[in-house]
What does this fold into?
Amino acid sequence: MSEYEDILQKIRPFGPHQVRTFVLVSLFETPLAWAMLGPIFTAKTPLFSCSDKNQTLYLDTNATDSCEHKNVCESYVFQSDFTSIVSEWQLVCGRGAVADLITSLQMAGVLFGAVITGQLADIFGRKKILFIEYALLIVLWFSTGFVTVWELYAALRFLIGGLIGGCLVVNFVLPLEFVTPQWRTFCGCVGFWAVGLMTLALWAFLVRDWRHLDLAMSSTGVVILPLWWLIDESPRWLLSRGHLKEAQEIISKMAKFNKRPVPDMKCLQDFVQREKIRINEEKKYSYWHLFSSVNQTKGTLICMFGWFVSSSVYYGHNFNSKNLVGNMYLNVFISGLVEIPALIFVLFSNNHLGRRITVFLLMLLSGLACVAVLVIDIAGQGESMPGLTISMAMFGKSCISGAWAAVQILSAETFPTVIR
It folds into this structure.
């Protein structure tokens, strides 16, 4: 155990101060979920029909049928109680792939932002980067409510995705650096993302115009910014950068908040020296070292595959929950609700069954549930068996949510510190 972790044990490894920090940082997840998953509603394709020469032709109605009219449509009539970017810019038929393209650009931005922000947070600090990127996110997100062309909207969604990805990286790391290793599984699994998904459904139900929805959610997200004065910088990061005095002040604050005596922190000087050596060692490593040996390559590829499967299935479930039979608002709400029991299961199974078995079991169950939905659909029973379809889809979503949380923890424990 390092000197820093030894001090955390003395002032309580997960005392009131750490609990407060964990809760406050986790609050970011709710508006981040709104921003990332908002396209479930804002990019929804309503039922529509072709309208030409002042004569509306109401076709039998799915979107594909409406695009198969023998005459080329110049305009469309959308039949829905909500508006979206699809109805706003008529992104149907020949432009039907644009809405999905915009969502894909956003997710590409998430990947880009996550990679870049990890480096920035190591250089400039966790807290500073988290709040700067979050503030920029709010500004860009709010500005989407005034965009008049889809091309600019797509560019903004890419940038928004980058900021979301960056915020999520720091949001995950920051609370972990206030606690000892035995509490990292808890902090890595528990959060407010599921709450964000459930409240997103409520937002969309109450606000049926996509512009007003983005404006309302981004404006509400501003309430997170004053947390700057309540959240401390990571003492571990401060020590790693040689800011010993600032780290000692925060540790003293933690001890007093936890009602523990302020410990002797002279030993932290040695910790600072070792951290400087470690950072110098890290500079010698790059992403190529993920493949530096046969065993390292094997572990890297397994983790990469786990992340790819988890993210693809998870976001596939989320962005397609609007297409399930039944009420789309209720379906999205339930898809957030089912994440909670899965995360509780991971908390216990990680310690009793192990990381690998937990990941394998949850991915297997999620895959079987997805296959069941596919079989029901191929058999043409989706409309006649809506309850079974939704149940299987939600069970699959629940399992993949837990699998992803387990994959995150497994990945963090797989790599040496210098390349983690």
Summary: The chain has two domains: 1-46+82-284, 287-420. Residues 56-61 have pLDDT under 50 and may be disordered.
